[in-house]
Design brief:
three-stranded antiparallel sheet
């Protein structure tokens, strides 16, 4: 499972809320998670994001998982600095906290081979 969404806290969308424009059948709109039809463990996968001036689309191994409206603005609507990428192995939160966390699965890791950023 991969979590793929932006954080809307102001004028990043016209409604001030998440505005999903496309979701693959495997994408859970409520939680913002892509549930692959295969295991993502112990394999290399390619995760992508394509940003435009009005939105972002997410991909897993070239497969489009979700698109949403998003304007790169601060919460008040003003211009912001450059974006950053966050890669983490998040454990817990609302979903995992509801169902518990299996201590016998630790230690664990997320390996990253490389990160590339392109500009059109």
């Amino acid at each position: 499972m991969l979590h793929q969404t932006t954080q809307i806290k102001g004028l990043q969308t016209s409604s001030g809320k998440q505005e999903i424009t496309f979701a693959a059948p495997e994408f859970n709109r409520q939680w913002g998670n892509y549930h692959a039809g295969r295991s993502l463990r112990d394999v290399w996968i390619e995760v992508g994001a394509q940003w435009t001036a009005s939105g972002v689309c997410y991909f897993v191994d070239g497969y489009k998982t979700m698109c949403e409206n998003y304007r790169w603005l601060n919460n008040s609507g003003g211009a912001v600095g450059p974006a950053h990428l966050l890669l983490n192995l998040a454990i817990g939160g609302q979903w995992a906290g509801r169902h518990g966390i299996a201590d016998d699965k630790f230690p664990t890791q997320a390996q990253v081979d490389y990160v590339r950023v392109y500009r059109k």
